[in-house]
Structures are given as C-alpha cells and as structure tokens.
Write a structure and sequence with these properties.
Blueprint (H helix, E strand, L loop, with lengths): L1 H39 L1 H37 L13
Helix pairs in contact: 1-2
Length: 91
C-alpha cells in the first residue's frame, strides 16, 4: 500500500506541476492579449478583451482549480505537511 501511495504521489506531482505551469503560461498570454488590445484600441480591442474574458479565463480557472486539488491529494498521499515548522530534535 505504501508503494502505491508513493507512485500515486509521484504521478500526481507531475500532473500538478504541469497544470500549474500551463495555467501560468496561459495567464501570461492573456495579459499580453490585454496589452495588445490596449495598444490597438477601438472595437477590435473590445472584441479581444471579451474573447479573453469569456473564453480563456474559465478554462484557466478550471485547470488551476483541478491542479490545486490534485496537489492537495498528492500532499495527503505523500504524508507531507505544509505551513508547519519542522520539529527540532532534542540533543
């Protein structure tokens, strides 16, 4: 059972890292889209911003939420604890 938990934690860690990386990359691309829209201006800029808001952002939110969920499951399976100071060994 312990071997299964380690393997599952390893694969979930890979999926978590990839999902977060994709979310950050697409988020950066959407930022560049807003900058391009600000430079272009007019009705085309409105269309670009509307497309980013209605088509891209929901996908980013789903990917990042699922990635965070998988990261939490990975932490549970691996027995990791976050935001907890390490215990000092008494000498």
């Amino acid at each position: 059972m312990k071997n299964f938990r380690k393997k599952a934690a390893y694969y979930l860690s890979y999926i978590y890292g990839t999902g977060i990386a994709v979310s950050l990359f697409v988020g950066a691309l959407s930022f560049l889209g807003y900058v391009a829209a600000m430079i272009i201006g007019g009705d085309i800029a409105t269309d670009i911003c509307t497309f980013i808001y209605k088509q891209i952002y929901p996908v980013i939110i789903y990917i990042s939420s699922l990635s965070v969920l998988l990261g939490l499951v990975k932490m549970y399976l691996a027995g990791e604890k976050s935001l907890v100071p390490p215990k000092k060994k008494k000498q």
